[in-house]
Amino acid sequence: MRGGVRVLAVGAVLLALATLSFGLSRLHLGVWAVPVALGIALCKAVLIAFFFMHLVERPGGPRLVIGTAGVFVGILVGLVLAEAAARAWPTLPPGPFPVSRLPGTERSGPPRVAPPWLPLP
What we know:
Elements lengths: L2 H23 L7 H20 L7 H26 L36
Helix pairs in contact: 1-2
Membrane topology: Multi-pass membrane protein
Protein name: Cytochrome c oxidase, subunit IV
Pfam families: COX4_pro
């Protein structure tokens, strides 16, 4: 593709991904909402980095830096999600208000046992 046509094509794809992201935000995707949104955002970031930051024209050095940064961001997000999944229930200290589950946080599997000082809802 020639330069101007490539820019228009990448711009059209970015516009389509933004429209898809907006359209999917109106749907209830449940637990798939965040992974789908992050996947679309990753596609947009890669397109912007490779075409508008001209990484497609450069040899391996800048690509390696961007790739390494992406791997480390993925590792950090994975560690945060692993820590949140292993967090003891509930993490709120006992107080004057009853503890209840937030909507959408129902878990499958065996129920967790609350500490003896915390009344169950």
